[in-house]
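Exercise 4. Each item below gives a protein and its sequence. For each, produce the structure-token representation.

Item: Zinc ribbon domain-containing protein YjdM (Paenibacillus mendelii).
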Amino acid sequence: MSNLPNCPQCSSEYTYEDGNLFICPECAHEWSLESEAEDREDNKVIKDANGNVLSDGDSVSVIKDLKVKGTSLVVKIGTKVKNIRLIDGDHDIDCKIDGFGAMKLKSEFVKKI
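Answer:
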């Protein structure tokens, strides 16, 4: 038996392959595995503490004093961070902070300016 995926819309197991598309005979839904993977990547939206969508190049402000791991330094509330870069992972913002250098921040501790 072939290992075709179930229909993402109705979960039917009777899907079949037609070229590079998968088709569900029960609900007539058509999809490809490539578009499914792209949709999952596009759906990952990173938001700040207020729910605003962040994107590469945005400027943000820190909303809480943050201890810098491994040092006695603290990133103070209100510190402005320019030109952020979004990355995958728990700490989803990569940036440079004046006086501290390169570091990673969690989006839940910043707000968009």
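Check: The mean pLDDT is 88.
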